[in-house]
Amino acid sequence: MGSATRSAAVVLRDALAQQGGAADLAVAEELFSIARLVGSSLQLRNTIADPTADPAEKAALTERIFGGKVAASTLAILKTAVQQRWSASADLAEGLEEVGVRAIAQNSADAERLGDELFAVSGAVSSDAELELALRSKLAGADAKVGVVDRLLTGKVSAGTVAIVSQLVADPRGRSIRESLRWAQQTIADQRDAVLAVVTTAQPLTAAQLGRLRDVFAARYGKAVALSTVIDASLIGGLRVRVGDDVIDSSIATRLSDVRLQLA
């Protein structure tokens, strides 16, 4: 991500915060739809993301195209987006997708549960090769893949989770579904001013153990910690923790492997 896109993304987050509760699930879904439209239309993308064009003129054009067709909050965020300079024109669609995910997290009654549900979906995809193939197939259209998501998730998880997963499968942009879900989890954690930690253990941890882990990593990273847990009996004991690019591995399986390497 280029520096211009990073700066634009910060401005969009501020624009979202200004909308407050008005940027609800419906607004997020409109942002997702516009992101897909921008991503699929080279002409539109080059027009409203042109770094040489006057920002006010791009905002006026955006209002002519979308005014009266989307909610006022959606239009306000979109006009802010097109007035920014993006490192690449394709980054505009990605920025709209990100702010849509953040809107859902910002107005969720339980953003932590939202992240947990996405993690559970990721686990289900990882354990079912046929499901993963169905969701990433280039032969199936976006509507067909969204239909699979609706059948699997509607009524079982929050509407926000369904909307996010539907967007990710409809517009993967070269990402695997697992990569997309991990990105969405991290985005939601960041919106909560938290870091995402994935903890893998041989056996389930108690509430007290999870609490101690949160305290340890909160002290280390200076933020609240969103914990997602994975059970993997092959670790034998101990745990493995991934926070961003940091990996802390104190599993017994890894220790035994190290011993074998030393003996060899």
From TrEMBL:
Superkingdom as given in the UniProt entry: Bacteria
Pfam families (UniProt xref): OSCP (PF00213)
Topological relation to the membrane, as annotated: Peripheral membrane protein
InterPro entries: ATPase_OSCP/d_CS (IPR020781), ATPase_OSCP/dsu (IPR000711)
UniProt subcellular location: Cell membrane; Membrane
UniProt keyword Membrane present: yes
Listed name of the protein: ATP synthase subunit delta
Organism of provenance: Gryllotalpicola protaetiae
The organism's taxonomic lineage, starting at the top: Bacteria, Bacillati, Actinomycetota, Actinomycetes, Micrococcales
